[in-house]
Sequence to fold (188 residues):
Amino acid sequence: MSKDIRESLPNDKEALLGIMNDSRDMLEQLYKGYFPMILNFVLLNSGTDDDAKDVFQESMIVLYDKVKEGKFELNCKLKTFIYSVSRRIWLKKLSYSSRYTGKVEDFEDTIQVEDDIVSHEEKDLQFYKMDEALNMLGEPCKTIIEDFYLKNRSMQEISEKFGYTNSDNAKNQKYKCLQRLKRYFFSK
Fold:
């Protein structure tokens, strides 16, 4: 975020007060200040500009509704709250469109994070790199890794699914696949 945008952003209390008073100007300031962060996140995670606009708008609606209820207590920076809500919304959309294989229901409505958004962006970049590396693996490795680590399937289930003679052979194959995945991941 550029220095002049940060300086023009209201502090969190002013922003919440502006939302409470239906200030259109406040919403525009929040859009200018925080949308680029959400756009970057969505683009790095299989989305488009239009997806980012939708996610940001839905996040602002969540914030607006919570503020209007009158019981909203901000336990982190507003930037962190907007990022967390947007992240949850986008991950849920990805899971519905099968572009994300994680369990979104494991996330809370707002992910409690520290002020350091940079660490979240770095983690998102790591997830993106891992997704690319998984896609480079090819079959059956990609499915074996996903079945074991993401879908929590047993080695016996994987063995039966792929026609291995026993679970030890499936374990052996999983090990080889992991070694290839590590090479792809760390070569980027």
